[in-house]
Amino acid sequence: MKLMETHLPAYCLRETLFGPVAVLWSVHRTKPKICRIVLSKSGAAAKQVVGMLATKHLIASCPEINVVVDKIAAFLTGEDVNFSLDMIRLDCCSVFQRKVLRVLYDIPRGRVSTYRLLAKHMGTPNAGRAVGTALATNPFPIIIPCHRAIRSDGALGGYQGGLNMKRTLLEREGLVFRDADHVATRDYFYAE
User: Fold this and answer.
1) Is 146 a known active-site residue?
2) 172 band by pLDDT with thresholds 50, 70 and 90
3) Active-site position among 12, 35, 93, 146
């Protein structure tokens, strides 16, 4: 029986420099779509997190998903990779989170913005914390580059893969740090 016929949710794992990454996906409207990407971090390997999310996921992939997984692995080695939103299930996010994720998606490689500036750009200038919460639960890290959102003082804030991963990703994109936790730039994307 082919997965495309069953419509059961599936996942595939890829070993990366940052540990295993899990891509959860299913067939939606006859096409494979990514439902979630799970990064490993200290104390929570991706496969363990997948097991906590659902017990009835098949270990499977397909050519379309393999392309995205290969791109994720390449991105994590430092390659300049462009992702499309066509393969992800943004419709599973709230309206507010979708708006946040789309605004964040537009931040180019090598640039950062702040939670407050993202909120202001969206027309909700007092929603900096809500933007941070939406990014903390971003189901598509890497494809939606939430590592490019930082605090107004230049501090990293949080990241699903851990702060070491966030810092490493930003350094690979050419950002410089003034100390262990603060980006040196004040040239924020979406700043006026």
Assistant:
1) yes
2) very high
3) 146
